[in-house]
Design goal:
This protein is of the alpha+beta class. Helices cover 33% and strands 20% of the residues.
Length: 225
């Protein structure tokens, strides 16, 4: 006790609370006050953990809903069959089957591409798969969403899937070089950008994807098939 007229000695808040709290809670507050730095780190760690879990769960829910909706909006094919050369007559035959709602054919060619000399990344050749479909302008299944530039691909140009653009460091209207093999190098324009959710991201498979029309392929020596 303090003498009359003298101020009471200072007591830490945790000590002062002892008279109002149960012993176990008094100890909790005393430890928190006595180890301020450690207590602050623990509180921050818990806060960061709760925030991270909430962010992950929210993103998972959001992506699950949006990705599913975006995928279904392309009217994805229920089956994809790989085979050797065939003609448009086979597509028409399959499309006419009563069990088949819609059918479409697609031709793919695997080449390599690189930015032009003098541009960033020139000389770095990367794998590029180009697809040609007879109905690119009016797709009923595995629809492609135009993002910028021309669609369908104009003659003499290519349209790249949007995840492939960073690989070539290109923009719509830029020209790049492609190697068709056997010394056949061509210069083509990037005429547009599309989003094809049915293709794997280029960064995951280390391969670019794009589209080209039949006349361009025939000019490169590939027959319509």
């Amino acid at each position: 006790m303090s003498a009359p007229g003298q101020a009471a000695p200072y007591q830490p808040p945790a000590m002062a609370l002892r008279r109002y709290l149960l012993p176990r809670w008094a100890k909790v507050f005393r430890d928190l006050w006595g180890y301020k730095t450690r207590s602050l780190l623990v509180i921050l760690s818990i806060a960061v953990g709760v925030f991270a879990i909430g962010t992950i769960m929210g993103a998972q829910s959001l992506l699950g809903i949006q990705y599913k909706a975006a995928y279904l909006s392309t009217n994805p094919a229920h089956a994809t069959i790989g085979m050797s050369q065939f003609s448009d007559a086979l597509i028409d035959s399959v499309r006419g089957m009563p069990e088949v709602g819609e059918a479409s054919g697609r031709f793919s060619v695997s080449i390599t591409s690189s930015p032009l000399a003098g541009h960033e990344g020139a000389g770095q050749w990367r794998d590029l798969t180009l697809y040609a479909r007879p109905d690119l302008g009016e797709l009923d299944i595995n629809q492609v969403k135009p993002q910028a530039g021309a669609w369908p691909p104009p003659e003499g140009g290519i349209v790249l899937e949007r995840n492939s653009m960073p690989f070539l460091r290109a923009r719509v209207g830029d020209t790049v070089q492609i190697d068709l093999g056997e010394g056949r190098v061509r210069t083509v324009a990037v005429a547009g950008v599309v989003h094809d959710i049915n293709l794997p991201p280029a960064q995951f498979v280390n391969r670019m994807f794009g589209y080209v029309d039949w006349k361009t392929l025939q000019g490169w020596g590939y027959p319509r098939q």
